Amino acid sequence: MSHPYTLIEPAVAALPLVVDSPHSGLHHDEILPMSATPDELLAGWDAYVDELFGHAPQVGGTLLHARFPRWLVDANRARDDLDPDLLEGQMPYPLHPSDKARRGMGVLRRLALPGVPVYACKLPAMFAEQLLQRYYDPYHAAIAGLIDAQHARFGAVWHIDCHSMKSRGNAMNIDNGAERPDFVVSNRDGETCSAEFVEVVASCLRGLGYKVSVNWPYKGAELIRAYSDPARGRHSLQVEVNRALYLDEARFARHAGFATLRGHLDQMLEAVAAYVRSEVAALR
Questions:
Q1: Which top-level group of life is the source organism from (predicted)?
Q2: Dihedrals φ, ψ of 273, to 5°?
Q3: Contact in structure between 129 and 87 (CB atoms under 8 Å)
């Protein structure tokens, strides 16, 4: 793969707004010892999320989305968040597996679904490191570079990390069996962005008729943790979209709700852009 991500520059005057979708890709070059079927692997795919948030460049934002699949490399995990049970041999640095890695959902996935291994055998540690260098490192370099450049230019930056979620949690989730809201907006319980930024997004979505939860069942993960610092004007927010709003979850096919949802997310991005413009003006 020549580039592990796609970067779309602003189509109008640039704002310090970065929108990324780390789980919307399906492409890779590796021949792998698979156990999970292609359909089982799709469970972790944030289907069409890059398209749902595709209006970002039209409001002055920069849009970044991964081309590689989440089951191969999950850019929304820490680089050392690896389950040792997935590996044959030792990585060249200490591992710090989180609870999610121990449940099969680390930076390299062990499970595609509950009880469904991704791979038919363990991965050599050297190969695991090559995957991280090929996919994880360039994606993180890109998002970090965008956020740093916008912050340097404007004195502040706003970042939205975009995902989709199953309409109900499964056994790999903390809300197993629970029906989920339409959207979950997360800032790690106040750590990664201002409460005002959360409110701009959540209130817009609620005004459009959606049920919105804040920081439950998702609090936000690595991509908003790693590059945020609200005290210095670096605000990162995670948004999860309920797949049932736009997708036949069994077939991963867009249904009639896709166009409506896309239009509403266009409106949300317009509201975010207006907020960012006002904040930039206040800084001046």
A1: Bacteria
A2: -60, -40
A3: no
3-state secondary structure of 109: strand
Distances (CA, A) of 126 to 88, 96, 111: 9, 17, 20
Is the separation of the CB atoms in 268 and 205 below 8 Å?
yes
Q: Give the torsion sign (CA, 111, 217, 61, 280).
A: negative
Residue reference for tokens 């409001």: 59
Give me the pLDDT at residue 1, please. Answer: 57
CB of 106 within 8 A of CB of 81? yes
Evaluate whether 185 touches 214 at the Cβ level (below 8 Å): yes
With tokens 């749902």, the residue in question is 52
Domain ranges of the chain: 5-283
Please, which residues have CB within 8 angstroms of residue 83's CB and are 6 or more apart in sequence? Answer: 97, 101, 102, 104, 106, 108, 110
pLDDT tens, 65-114? 999 999 999 999 999 999 999 999 999 999 999 999 999 999 999 999 99
